[in-house]
Design a protein that fits this description.
The structure holds 2 protein chains of 2 kinds. By secondary structure, chain A is an alpha+beta fold. In chain A, 24% of the residues lie in helices and 36% in strands. In chain A, helix 1 crosses helix 2 and helix 4 packs parallel to helix 5. Chain B has helices spanning 2-14, 70-88, 120-137, 201-204, 207-222, 238-249, 255-259, 319-324, 358-363, 413-418; strands at 19-35, 38-56, 59-65, 104-107, 141-159, 164-182, 185-195, 230-236, 279-282, 303-308, 311-312, 333-334, 343-344, 348-351, 367-379, 384-396, 399-404, 407-412, 420-423, 428-435, 439-446, 449-458. In chain B, strand 20 (428-435) and strand 21 (439-446) form a beta hairpin. The chains are: A alpha+beta, B alpha+beta. Chains A and B meet through strand 1, strand 2, strand 3, helix 2 and helix 4 of A and strand 2, strand 3, helix 2, helix 3 and strand 7 of B.
């Protein structure tokens, strides 16, 4: 993977800002990204495809009479950059004033980040990645003949980011990531399990493909001979993947200032109030060492920070970007996100960074051992159909196991979990000590009492 | 452009690839978002790039680059061949492609109103008119987010089998989200519209019409009750039938997922649904959001029967799965843009209309639910599905009753398809976007249907 000329990227940004201001923009901002990634894909039991992607581009925001225009290009030549800046200004003129617009951020010093860039990831060869994929696949095959490695792979990513604005912000950061994942099913005669999944993503070159392969295969075999259960109200243990799915469309949205300000959050006016069990303490930590979403600054050049969201069950803070903060006289918490394959092509969106639950003291075995009759949920399906305003959810738990007498007894099929996410938070009865990173969530296993399960028996 | 791409294809062959394809695109996009009557972003952009895919010794190499430059495209071919060679050392069952006839064609967009000829000001006006209609409908409406996107441009496709296609792209899409609140009751509703014909979609889907529909739906929910949990008979509207056909049925019949062990794995030629059920995935519906002439492997699109009178008769294929299953490619290989390799995607997926009227569907239901519009859905390879329902009503003694909010349905796809006992004579298609690692523009739909039993959840 090639390293870019950083000063050239910054010069492109400055040029775009200068052109937009020269055209008559009151303020302007340029965001540049240069990304590349390599991945090796496993499909239906074999390594079958290698992919490399490279893209770069610039996005310009220009402000004219409190109206914001945006334009992007992925051709970084002086001519295209000047055109993009001019188009952003034209879009601003075509747009309508927004009385709540104040200004782009001013420069601030950035916090320290650790373990977000690893030159070993930049240097890794595709041959080595193929070998890693083969090791992971080998673990699945060796585990049990009934398991099929449906989908998976190994991949690396490298990204460079520049933000420049007309108030003097001039920021550069770079980051790496590496990950491996495996989706499996098991088939025994007519018995086909639901898809099971395991992954390991890191910012430094330290992943465990053996463990991922073995765990994905273990889940699939353990999902065979699933039973149906009666409806009831149970204690439920959520793994990180399941809890992330559940929270992503509910709690994580409810603490974003744009949802709050637009009356789309049930947590509006709840700062200082008890919204969760005493055991629940949550930080949004944009500076977490090695965090999957850690960076020095956000998509607007605002320093990333560690924000206390829930302290021992009490709601403390919402998450802000520059616009929502200015609107109410608060400070941005550095949560303006520009992500995806082409970050330059998007305007900032308010997003959580590393949404971190404070760990508890139980081992996973203890969490399970203390449950007389309950469910162990590894994934939920349909969480995106949750009601974002009320926190109501109704999801299918899959894969999921029944716990009986403190032991994981058997796999269960077709259970729906229904409830309100804020009741789930109030009913948290224990947290594990097994913290791991799952997309935005950093958390251990979490046990919740009194969850309604609709069975099919 | 074509010469440059043709040279790259030849170069790939000279390096020993058994198959080479190069796709190049120039795309223009306009995007805008309004939130509560405020224009949050008026955006446009230009992007160009190429995707090179090669097959060497039965393994794929794919390289995408966000630049159109002959030297870089040549380097990308080198890189793709190198990646494929490294991968091929591990391939157990080499990939082969089904034969298709080489095609040379130029496909022009023929819209009455190209979105490129409509000013940013006018696009903003349409969104704001919709916003105004929604807020004007009822003062309990608290928020409204409108997104708009149009994509125009040209797609070049050249492969080593002699196919050479230049195909215009044109998409117009909008999504409307509204929420309302009364005391502690929160409600939300969403709607999407999309077209491959042109900006004229807004002449029929006027801001007033769409706005009123969304506003009415969200306000209805405020007085709605939550559903009883359990198994009930249900009459399902075209919008929910569509998402069911797409999520619960369609994905299982994408041949890559079928081969990966979906519950349809060994069901070709077998009865998997009641006789009332016939399902198509159809890329030929004029102007529909999931229509196109050639897919991203250069294969002509078609109307593919998936289920005929309850029997599974077809799957959706690319050239690789068609060869593997000894069937014909169906033109379902689609790539979001040059950054992605083509994979099997749906087009316009629908259940074919039957002969019942709506009244006939509900008159025999003693107690059940009418599920009118969805909020999202998902399915697993084993046929477990879940669909969130944003608008539903009770059916009591053959008549529509109270509104119901925050319901969801779940079950097993094949069990549910067997329980379809009547199919309506009406028909609607709804536009949407489908995510499978990449975004594809699609439609789904059908008539009203009645299902003997489905699990209703929700209503915490």
């Amino acid at each position: 993977m090639a390293e870019p000329n950083v000063s050239e990227l910054i010069d492109f940004g400055k040029r775009a800002v200068k052109v937009a201001v020269g055209r008559g923009a009151e303020e302007a901002e340029a965001f540049l990204s240069m990304n590349s990634g390599t991945s090796i894909d496993i499909e239906r039991g074999q390594i079958v495809r290698s992919i490399k992607r490279m893209d770069q581009g610039l996005g310009v925001r220009a402000v004219y009479r409190k109206a914001v225009g945006f334009s992007y290009t992925n051709t970084l030549t002086d001519k295209n950059i000047e055109e993009a800046a001019a188009r952003a200004f034209r879009a601003a003129r075509a747009s309508r004033p927004n009385k709540n617009w104040l200004k782009f951020p001013s420069p601030k010093s950035f916090g320290e980040t650790k373990d977000t860039y690893d030159k070993r990831i930049v240097a890794v060869s595709s041959d080595e990645l193929v070998e890693t994929a083969a090791v992971m696949l080998g673990m699945v095959e060796a585990y049990d003949k009934r398991v099929l490695a449906v989908d998976g792979g190994v991949g690396t990513a490298l990204g460079h980011t520049v933000v420049v604005n007309s108030h003097g912000v001039e920021a550069y950061d770079r980051g790496t990531a590496v990950g491996c994942s495996m989706e499996t099913i098991a088939r025994d005669g007519a018995d086909v399990t639901p898809a099971c999944f395991e992954l390991n993503a890191e910012r430094v070159y330290d992943i465990d493909p053996e463990a991922v392969g073995t765990e994905a295969a273990r889940q699939a075999v353990s999902s065979l001979k699933a039973k149906k259960i009666e409806s009831g109200v149970f204690p439920v243990i959520f793994t990180q993947a399941a809890f992330h799915s559940l929270l992503y469309y509910t709690l994580i949205n409810a603490v974003k200032a744009d949802y709050v300000q637009r009356e789309r959050s049930a947590l509006k006016d709840k700062i200082g109030e008890k919204v969760a069990s005493d055991l629940v303490t949550v930080y949004d930590d944009g500076l977490l060492d090695g965090g999957l979403l850690t960076s020095k600054f956000d998509g607007e050049g605002v320093p990333c920070q560690k924000t206390l969201v829930i302290d021992k069950g009490v709601l403390k803070n919402f998450l802000y970007d520059n616009y929502t903060a200015n609107k109410v006289g608060a400070e941005s918490t550095g949560n303006a996100s520009r992500t995806g394959l082409a970050p330059y092509a998007s305007t900032p969106v308010l997003e959580a960074s590393n949404f971190t639950f404070k760990r508890g003291n139980r081992t996973p075995e203890e969490l399970v051992g203390e449950v007389d009759e309950g469910l162990l949920v590894y994934g939920v399906q349909g969480a995106h159909s949750s009601n974002p305003e009320s926190g109501e959810f109704s999801v299918v738990a899959t894969p999921v196991w029944k716990i009986e007498g403190g032991n994981v007894a058997y796999a269960v099929r077709g259970v729906m979990l229904t409830g309100v996410v804020f009741d789930v938070l109030r009913n948290v009865s224990a947290l594990g000590n097994n913290v791991r990173k799952m997309e935005q969530l950093v958390a251990p296993w979490i046990r919740v009492e009194n969850v309604r399960a609709v069975g099919r028996k | 452009m074509k010469d440059m791409l043709a040279k790259s294809v030849d170069y790939g062959r000279s390096l020993g690839a058994e198959y080479v394809e190069v796709r190049a695109q120039n795309l223009f996009k306009t995007l805008l978002t309004t939130k509560d009557g405020r224009v949050e972003g008026a955006k446009d952009g230009i992007e160009g790039g190429a995707g090179v895919r090669v097959l060497v010794n039965g393994a794929w190499g794919f390289v995408s680059l966000g630049k159109l430059d002959s030297k870089l495209v040549t380097e990308a071919v080198d890189e793709a061949v190198r990646l494929a060679k490294a991968t091929s050392l591990r391939v157990k069952k080499p990939v082969k492609l089904a034969d298709v006839k080489a095609v040379e064609d130029r496909v022009m967009a023929n819209s009455r109103k190209s979105p490129q000829d409509v000013s940013m000001e006018e696009k903003i006006d349409v969104a704001l008119a919709m916003d105004k209609t929604i807020f004007g409908y009822d003062k309990r409406i608290r928020s409204c987010t409108i997104s708009y996107l149009d994509v125009t441009g040209t797609n070049y496709f050249i492969n080593s089998d002699g196919t050479c296609i230049e195909q215009d792209k044109l998409y117009v899409w909008s999504r409307i989200l509204a929420s309302a609140r009364e005391n502690s009751i929160y409600a939300s509703a969403r709607e999407e519209i999309g077209s491959t014909s042109g900006y004229e979609i807004f002449d029929t889907e006027t801001p007033e019409k769409v706005g009123t529909m969304v506003a009415k739906r969200v306000v209805e929910q405020l007085k709605a009750k939550t559903p009883k949990g359990g198994s009930f008979p249900a009459v399902i509207g075209p919008n929910v039938v569509g998402v069911f056909m797409h999520e619960a049925m369609g994905h299982l019949a994408e041949a890559d997922l079928t081969l990966s062990g979906s519950v349809l794995y060994d069901k070709l030629g077998k009865q998997i649904a009641s006789d009332a059920v016939t399902v198509y995935d159809d890329g030929t519906v004029e102007g529909a959001f999931g229509s196109f002439k050639y897919d991203d492997e250069g294969v002509r699109t078609q109307k593919t029967a998936l289920i005929e009178k309850g029997t599974l008769t077809g799957l959706m294929h690319n050239r690789e799965t068609a060869c593997k299953l000894n069937m014909e490619p169906t033109g379902n290989a689609r790539a979001e843009d040059f950054r992605f390799e083509p994979i099997i995607r749906m087009r316009n997926t629908y259940l074919a209309a039957g002969d019942s009227t709506f009244e006939e569907l509900i008159e025999d239901v003693d107690f059940g639910y009418y599920l009118k519009s969805f909020r999202g859905g998902q399915a697993n390879l084993d046929g477990t599905f879940q669909v969130g329902i944003q608008e539903a009503y009770e059916i009591v003694k053959g008549k529509l009753g109270d509104a119901v909010r925050s319901a969801s349905i779940s079950g097993n796809t094949l069990e549910t398809l067997h329980k379809v006992d009547a199919v309506g004579r009406d028909f609607e298609l709804w536009s949407g976007r489908c995510g499978k690692g990449q975004i594809a523009f699609i439609c789904d739909g059908g008539p009203h249907i009645r299902v003997g039993e489905v699990i209703i959840g929700g209503g915490a």
